[in-house]
UniProtKB/TrEMBL annotation, chain A:
<feature type="transmembrane region" description="Helical">
    <location>
        <begin position="125"/>
        <end position="146"/>
    </location>
</feature>
<keyword id="KW-0812">Transmembrane</keyword>
<keyword id="KW-0472">Membrane</keyword>
<dbReference type="Pfam" id="PF00528">
    <property type="entry name" value="BPD_transp_1"/>
</dbReference>
<dbReference type="GO" id="GO:0005886">
    <property type="term" value="C:plasma membrane"/>
</dbReference>
<feature type="domain" description="ABC transmembrane type-1">
    <location>
        <begin position="88"/>
        <end position="304"/>
    </location>
</feature>
<keyword id="KW-1003">Cell membrane</keyword>
<dbReference type="InterPro" id="IPR051393">
    <property type="entry name" value="ABC_transporter_permease"/>
</dbReference>
<protein>
    <submittedName>
        <fullName>Carbohydrate ABC transporter membrane protein 1, CUT1 family</fullName>
    </submittedName>
</protein>
TrEMBL record, chain B:
<dbReference type="Pfam" id="PF01547">
    <property type="entry name" value="SBP_bac_1"/>
</dbReference>
<dbReference type="InterPro" id="IPR006059">
    <property type="entry name" value="SBP"/>
</dbReference>
<keyword id="KW-0762">Sugar transport</keyword>
<feature type="signal peptide">
    <location>
        <begin position="1"/>
        <end position="23"/>
    </location>
</feature>
<keyword id="KW-0813">Transport</keyword>
<keyword id="KW-0732">Signal</keyword>
<protein>
    <submittedName>
        <fullName>Multiple sugar transport system substrate-binding protein</fullName>
    </submittedName>
</protein>
<dbReference type="InterPro" id="IPR050490">
    <property type="entry name" value="Bact_solute-bd_prot1"/>
</dbReference>
Length: 313, 446
């Protein structure tokens, strides 16, 4: 996005350079006026809450003794708190499994749909994308019911073969239960992004490749995937940030999964519990910031290792 | 150019006023978005949060009977959902209602934060005689009164008569008999005998209290000191007992009040349900006792540890409290005293088993005493079970950080269910966890 505007900017500069002074000032003002609405919203709804949360995280409020300034004590507590650490470890493990799975699935689907152009392909594209159009909460509740041993279909299906249905809401299998919900919901969305990127590739390249004797498989791996690498990295970063901030699905399934999902299951859920259930806004803010730090480190590390292809930023 | 600039300025101003308009919305305590319709105009309005299934009727009754004040009711969720919102409003200093429905065990938690008003000065003497001393004790902190009792939750054993008949068992009188009966049903290939739910920590606490545990000792005259005793022998025994039942596969480990659990209750997957007197109303609301399971339920007194010295316990039960954010506390107190205290509302409550009233007039009403409860297939549940249980209940001292304690309990019961700790270990961990929290909060733990 930014690269586009940067390229255009020099073109207009020589014209304005001639008539500096009053006009320049006026344009300056106009610019601020146009940026203004966005700036106000940006400051009011992003910077101010962040600053306030940071401020909160430096204090400690006790039932007896009131509020006191403790500097980084809350952060020290967070990084020695087994609840926060186990939650953070869970989302990292979950990212390591769920993101590659989703991306591979989305990429495979996008490549297939890109090379097939029948009516059925268009229908499939819509169907694969559909789960993303279903609100997360409803999706989670729906899967909760599908997993249910009492009235879900799994019990009946496995019963046909005389087997016991796996309980995806038990503490042993909840990881896979959530993995399935998340993949179901997001793979289609990532597929659409990759598909759009594939549509943007110049078809003459394929023609040239075929002339040189490349097969379908070679075109896919040697031409298509390298060319959509920026889009791949984009969705990787999206999914990394999203998964580290995991909240909706486990929070909803909590009520259906007996004891398998605690209130400190993920760092975000733990921050929510601290702030809104225990009125410990200070510690909740500290956890949020600590999680923010974790996300930053993970994303930075990822971008560092893939820096050659980082053309979308 | 000039016109464009004017347009831009106008657009900006419009955006600005839009923002201002957003920020002036006060949310929860707003009297303009009531669930009920207030018909009387120009009368002061008191806002209220509550979740009784028949709140609409209760509020309408109150509004009909009063010309000097009207109630504006909102249901912001049941139990924890409401407490979380109230807690946030307390922290924010705005957004709380004038009157709020709270369970008695939460009152100290909100009171210590200065969120509730002592209503003793606003007409306490006039209604004092309407409730038992035990009922007042549960809503008081020290000698100050922070709520008006509405209903209690004497705990008993609801059971499936059809299952008991099929496996030829009689209602167990002790917990030892309960386990034997459970084993007998299991050996005969029958369903689970009960349920150990992680999400009902207040019930687990009540069952520990039955064996003689007293989790907290707190004297508001010395607000800095608190006694925390969560891993005494009685507490351990009860957790070990239920952990053992779960491990042997005699009871289920499903979260209660979930669709999964309710469908299990309807299907007859649980032979018993240890629960409070208000449970039938909530179960009926969830669809229990209406289809294939009509008339199959009965109720018996709670099994005992020592039948020679029976102990009765309480789960839930709630009150109306006046919040510090009420602009006219006296008017709010009038609502708290008067709401759900009229005969019509109470009768609706107890005939549908939505509440087990604490109002003595209602409790002495022969119609309540002799009521043949439809859910229990005509059994006189009040006379046989609930009234004696309520009378024998002695009251409990609750923690001023009840939310944390109950969350921590839920976590430990989950661990027991997972099988990663025994009941005794869970009790030790709970003690450690809660004592640490209490110290963090500035208390001296004894």
């Amino acid at each position: 996005m930014t690269s586009l505007t940067e390229k255009r900017a020099p073109r207009t500069q020589p014209e304005t350079r001639k008539i500096r002074g009053k006009v320049h000032l006026r344009e300056h003002l106009m610019g601020w006026l146009f940026v203004g609405p966005f700036g106000i919203v940006f400051l009011a709804f992003l910077i101010a809450p962040l600053a306030y949360a940071l401020y909160l995280s430096l204090f400690q409020k006790k039932l007896i003794g009131g509020t006191s300034f403790v500097l980084f004590d809350n952060y020290v507590k967070a990084f020695t708190d087994p609840s926060f650490l186990s939650g953070a470890w869970f989302v990292i493990r979950f990212s390591l499994v769920s993101i590659p799975l989703q991306i591979v699935l989305a990429l495979a689907l996008a490549l297939i749909l890109d090379s097939v152009t029948t009516l059925f392909a268009r229908f499939s594209r819509l169907m694969i994308f559909l789960p993303y159009a279903i609100p997360t909460v409803i999706g989670a509740v729906m899967w909760g019911f599908l997993y249910s041993r009492g009235f879900g279909p799994l019990t009946d299906i496995f019963g046909l073969f005389g087997a016991t249905a796996p309980d995806f809401l038990s503490s042993d299998l909840i990881f896979y239960g959530l993995l399935n919900v998340v993949t179901w919901q997001w793979a289609g969305y990532y597929m659409i992004i990759l598909y759009a990127a594939l549509q943007g590739v110049d078809p003459t390249l394929y023609e040239a490749a075929r002339m040189d004797g490349a097969g379908r498989w070679q075109i896919a791996t040697r031409i298509k995937i390298p060319l959509i690498a920026p889009a791949l990295i984009l969705i990787l970063v999206f999914s990394l940030i999203g998964t580290l901030q995991f909240f909706n699905e486990p929070q909803i399934l909590r009520y259906l999964a007996a004891g398998a999902i605690g209130s400190d299951f993920t760092p975000n859920m733990y921050a929510y519990q601290q702030a809104f259930s225990l009125a410990n806004f200070n510690y909740g803010s500290a956890i949020s910031f600590a999680l923010g730090g974790l996300v930053f480190i993970c994303v930075y590390a990822f971008l560092f290792f893939t820096r050659k292809r980082r053309s979308f930023l | 150019m000039k016109r464009r600039r004017i347009l831009a300025t106008v657009a900006m101003l419009a955006a600005g006023t839009g923002l201002v308009a957003c920020s002036s919305d006060e949310g929860g305590s707003d009297a303009s978005n009531c669930t009920n319709t207030i018909t009387k105009q120009n009368v002061p309005v008191v806002t209220m949060w509550g979740w009784y299934p028949n709140t609409q009727l209760v509020v309408d009754n109150f509004n009909k009977q009063h010309d000097d004040v009207q109630v504006c009711w909102t249901n912001v969720g049941q139990g924890s959902d409401e407490y979380d919102k109230f807690q946030t409003a307390i922290s924010a200093g705005t957004g709380a209602p004038d009157v709020i429905m709270v369970e008695a065990d939460r009152i100290p938690t909100f009171q210590i934060q200065g969120a509730l008003v002592d209503i003793k000065q606003y007409g306490f003497d006039a209604v004092k005689a309407n409730y038992s001393e035990g009922a007042w004790k549960d809503v008081s902190v020290g000698d100050k009164v922070y709520g008006v009792p509405v209903d209690g939750g004497p705990v008993a054993m609801i059971y499936r008569k059809d299952i008991f008949d099929k496996y030829k068992i009689t209602p167990p009188k002790t917990w030892a008999e309960y386990e034997q009966a459970a084993q007998k049903v299991k050996d005969a290939g029958g369903p689970l005998f009960g349920d150990l739910g992680a999400n009902v920590p207040a019930l687990t606490m009540a069952l520990q209290i039955q064996k003689g545990a007293s989790p907290f000792t707190y004297d508001p005259a010395q607000p800095k000191a608190i006694g925390v005793k969560l891993n005494d022998q009685a507490s351990k025994d009860v957790l070990d007992y239920w952990g053992g039942l779960a491990k042997k596969g005699l009871v289920g480990t499903q979260n209660q009040f979930t669709p999964e659990y309710i469908s299990g209750v309807i299907n007859g997957n649980y032979a018993t349900y240890i629960s409070a007197a208000w449970a039938p109303g909530y179960l009926t609301g969830a669809g229990v006792g209406k289809g294939q399971d009509t008339g199959k339920f009965a109720v018996a007194p709670l099994p005992q540890w020592d039948p020679a010295n029976p102990v009765q316990v309480n789960w839930g039960g709630s009150a109306f409290s006046v919040t510090k954010q009420a602009k006219k506390p006296e008017l709010a107190a009038k609502v708290a005293y008067g709401l759900y205290a009229d005969k019509e509302s109470l009768t609706d409550g107890w005939t549908n088993q939505i509440i087990f009233p604490l109002n003595l007039t209602a409790l002495k009403d022969p119609a309540l005493v002799d009521l043949k409860v439809a859910f229990f297939n005509g059994q006189q549940a009040n006379k046989e079970v609930y009234l004696p249980a309520a009378e024998a209940y002695k009251g409990v001292a609750y923690a001023p950080f009840g939310q944390y304690y109950l969350d921590a309990m839920e976590k430990q019961v989950s661990e027991i269910i997972k099988g990663s700790v025994t009941g005794s270990q869970a009790a030790d961990r709970l003690q450690e966890d809660v004592a640490k929290y209490a110290k963090e909060q500035g208390f001296t733990v004894q």
